[in-house]
Write a structure and sequence with these properties.
7 strands; Rossmann fold; two-stranded antiparallel ribbon; 5-stranded parallel sheet; alpha/beta; 326 residues
């Protein structure tokens, strides 16, 4: 399928950071599924809860997806989205020596998240932090696999459907140009001194996710979609990259991920082709941030430095008012 040119003005859930972009025309990976069974099943199960690391916490792709669904879904059957991503988090429980604090692990808060949100579908996207920014090893891959298998099992035990997003891409080029690739002076790898071949770690993780080992209800290859778009962009601009620090991708990539989710779940073409307006995305971003901070505060912020949220009941009231006032 040819990717439509998408315009957006995305206010990411980072204070003071706004971005606008236009996604290039190019191959975006797989087109809509010919079997709408998955879509019919998942769109009837609400809420959709999103777990992941900083790219999920930033909220861009979740907000775009929320705006997309709110703009196109029957008003009497809304799908509620909750972004409970956590910066620095892993599924593996690993943490590099030089990280300023022990990386949080989703398993430290998962049971409380599931009990409080009672999800119909849980989307998970881990991997970027799970290799702790070192070259590939059997041990780190095994830790990631074990963490993801336990995550899938607990989600399914709660009665929710489990959807896995493959790890995205790590981009060493902008870091290499600034001399930021590892190891550090201490001879170790870390988020500030990642291995040049760290993307190989994410490729191994993605291959495993796609192997069927997780027995997920769906596995969505966002990595393939991002790499395809990057290939198109590099043909026009040899210095193109999604993430200045190699890890935290911007609005363009968030738009690609949101679209890839809809395509992979077999959403109808009438929905996929009706991209939300900038105003709808901005509104969804504000709602998602309010709910994210509230639910993270209520279910356990196992990471220092995150903003405190309102009580969940009050955040839900604010979001309901925003919906009435729009």
């Amino acid at each position: 399928m040819r990717r439509p040119i998408l315009s957006l003005c995305l206010l990411l859930a980072v204070p003071g950071l706004a971005a606008s972009c236009r996604v290039a025309t190019g191959q975006s990976g797989d087109g809509p599924s010919s079997d709408a069974t998955v879509w019919q099943e998942l769109q009837s199960r609400s809420p959709w809860v999103f777990l992941g690391d900083s790219n999920t916490y930033a909220g861009g792709y979740v907000a775009i997806l929320d705006a997309w669904l709110q703009s196109n879904h029957a008003p009497d059957r809304p799908i509620k989205l909750l972004n409970l991503g956590m910066s620095s988090e892993t599924a593996s429980g690993l943490s590099e020596v030089d990280h300023p604090f022990k990386r949080p692990c989703v398993h430290e808060r998962l049971s409380k998240v599931l009990a409080m949100t009672r999800p119909g579908v849980v989307f998970v996207c881990y991997g970027m932090n799970d290799g702790i920014y070192a070259p590939p090893t059997v041990e780190t891959l095994a830790a990631y696999q074990d963490g993801m298998l336990r995550l899938a099992a607990e989600v399914r035990a709660s009665g929710a459907k489990f959807v896995c997003l493959t790890p995205p891409v790590f981009e060493p080029e902008p870091l290499g140009a600034r001399g930021k690739l590892g190891p550090s002076k201490a001879g170790r790898y870390a988020y500030f001194a990642p291995a040049k071949d760290y993307d190989d770690v994410l490729q191994e993780q993605a291959d495993w996710c796609l192997s069927g080992a997780l027995e997920a209800d769906a596995v969505i290859d966002i990595r393939k979609a991002l790499r395809a778009e990057k290939k198109v962009r590099l043909a026009d601009d040899p210095k193109f990259f999604f993430a200045r620090d190699g890890v935290h991708f911007g609005a363009e990539a968030h738009a690609i991920v949101a679209e890839k989710i809809l395509l992979s779940l077999g959403a109808p073409a009438s929905l996929v082709e009706n991209y939300p307006t900038d105003e709808a995305i901005e509104s969804s971003t504000r709602r998602m941030k309010l709910l994210r901070d509230a639910y993270l505060s209520a279910t356990g912020k196992n990471r220092p430095g995150l903003a405190a949220g309102y009580p969940v009941w009050y955040a839900e009231q604010l979001v309901a008012k925003m919906a009435r006032d729009k």
